[in-house]
């Protein structure tokens, strides 16, 4: 645990995401008189000119990138865009900070700043699931893990979208000040100190990219009868094509094999029933076409990152409403 108050710099810029910026401020800048020591936090400007966050909120800063020279922790809450260039002064300051051992942490699209300036080469990283493929395509030397809430690789931490920044921030607090303080901060935020699973649980069921060649009607037909068996032979017959042709067109349209798509469709339906109904878990498994309770639990955990019971406890409308 730390013996001094770490110097934290939160990087701000024009067009900043208000929510992600708020996460950084709430965790590291909010006064906490209940603690004998806490972070010394500044907001610094990525470049010159007026700065407004989304919603038109004007941002006041404590200085420019020169303040990064003494920072122990630098937070990048998102970025203007995956292809938006990093200003040279910010690039140089971040590289210098990394070279002297400062920790760098990003929320959501903030990962693109570090990727652009070469600090993620050969490292693992994550980002919001919507940007994961873009990150992997643009920076093939970065190992992108799209399923986790955050990644720590050496002195660099990257988090998934938006609220995952809270998980990463609590992890940092736990490292610096111990589990008890991190738990107190989490309690004040009405959050669990640690969350199970990853962002896989939030990724929606993919729709076919190409709604041609009879694939879309077939997928709709399968979704309407997920409780039934759908071997490849039945799918092909329903689509009026050979099994080989169906497999090729299915992968072209959805990016998945027929078997993988069917498994994901069953899990998507099960997720909806877990959220919106009070059916027993075994009954949900049957309604979604899983061959056994064991298969239901295995496939659901593989895709969502959570057991069905844990998913229901977290996302059930009945739980949320207090029913």
Summarize the structure.
The chain is built from 14 helices and eight strands. The chain has 323 residues and is an alpha/beta fold.
Give a description of the structure.
The protein has 323 residues and is α/β, with parallel strands linked by helices. The chain folds into two domains: 194 residues, Class I glutamine amidotransferase (GATase) domain (Rossmann fold, 3-Layer(aba) Sandwich); 118 residues, Homeodomain-like (Arc Repressor Mutant, subunit A), CATH 1.10.10.60. Helices cover 43% and strands 11% of the residues. The chain contains 14 helices and eight strands. The strands form two sheets. Strands 2-1-3-4-8-7 form a six-stranded mixed sheet, with helices on both faces. Strands 5-6 form a two-stranded parallel ribbon. Strand 5, helix 4 and strand 6 form a beta-alpha-beta unit. The protein is elongated and about 65 Å long. The C terminus is likely disordered.
Key traits:
43% helix, 323 residues, Rossmann fold, 2 domains, six-stranded mixed sheet, 11% strand, Arc Repressor Mutant, subunit A, two-stranded parallel ribbon, single chain
Topology:
Layout (H helix, E strand, L loop, with lengths): L6 E6 L5 H11 L11 E6 L27 E5 L10 H12 L3 E5 L3 H6 L7 E2 L6 H7 L4 E2 L5 E4 L2 E4 L4 H14 L1 H10 L26 H9 L8 H8 L3 H12 L3 H19 L4 H7 L5 H12 L3 H8 L1 H5 L2
Parallel strand pairs: 1-2, 1-3, 3-4, 4-8, 5-6
Antiparallel strand pairs: 7-8
Q: Tell me the CATH superfamily of the largest domain.
A: Class I glutamine amidotransferase (GATase) domain
Strand segment tally: 8
CATH architecture classification name of the largest domain: 3-Layer(aba) Sandwich
> What gyration radius follows from the Cα positions, in whole Å?
23 Å
CATH fold-type name of the largest domain? Rossmann fold
Query: For the terminal residues, how far apart are their CA atoms?
Result: 42 Å
